[in-house]
Amino acid sequence: QVQLVQSGADVKKPGSSVKVSCKTSGGAFSTYAINWVRQAPGQGLEWMGGLIPIFEKPDYAQKFQGRLTIIADESTSTAFMELNSLTSEDTAVYYCARGGSRYSGNYALFQWGQGTLVTVSS
Amino acid sequence: EIVLTQSPGTLSLSPGERATLSCRATETISSDSLAWYQQKPGQAPRLLIHRASNRATGIPDRFSASGSGTDFTLTISRLEPEDFAVYYCQQYGDSEFTFGPGTKVDIK
Questions:
Q1: pLDDT higher than threshold 90 for residue B55
Q2: In this complex, is the C-beta atom of A50 within 8 Å of any C-beta atom belonging to chain B?
Q3: A63 exposed, middle or buried (CB, 10 Å; 0-12, 13-18, 19+)?
Q4: Closest CA relative to residue A47, chosen from B71, B17, B88
Q5: E strands, A1-122, in order
Q6: Mean pLDDT, rounded, for B29-46
Q7: Coil/strand/helix, residue B82
Q8: How many CB pairs under 8 A join A and B?
Q9: Which positions in chain B touch A99 (Cβ < 8 Å)?
Q10: Are A110 and B50 within 8 A, CB to CB?
């Protein structure tokens, strides 16, 4: 059974950066899409970007272009999301979610991590 | 960017009733790359439906979905107490995935 385990909650100052990790176990890693989705308090889901590790070329939502970096470490089956230039509007729960394999071409978000609360506050 | 709208915003129903949720896209979603998720308070979303009409593993058959192009529907045939939640549609046919704003199904 595939499990995604994320790093713990974090508190950051405005203008700083945050890096969240997502470790996958119980299934293949390199050929499956890993996506990042966030949810501000009381709000809906927002897709931020994704990556198929074997391709090493992430896609980012236009809103986050220039301050979001998604990478993957195949040796540890861990994906990372780094967001820069934080403001209070970045306060949210950040989820990683695993899509289908590159062979299926079905990139619905089949499994989700538990979420990581990032609070941006001075 | 493909924008998704969901209606209604809130659906107030009783257990045992039928729920019909709508999701509409601003342009055709390729390969029926439309998914539905359920989210309960304090929990991560859970995939219900992928490829517009395919139930994910372990999803009860009271959940069904249909649609293509720009108009999609999720139906819950008989609401169980555990089905009261927020439901999101999501398209993944474009390089930039997008979610709808959600439909909250609450107890009447």
A1: yes
A2: yes
A3: middle
A4: B88
A5: 3-6, 10-12, 18-25, 32-39, 46-51, 59-60, 68-73, 78-83, 92-101, 111-112, 116-120
A6: 95
A7: helix
A8: 64
A9: 92
A10: yes
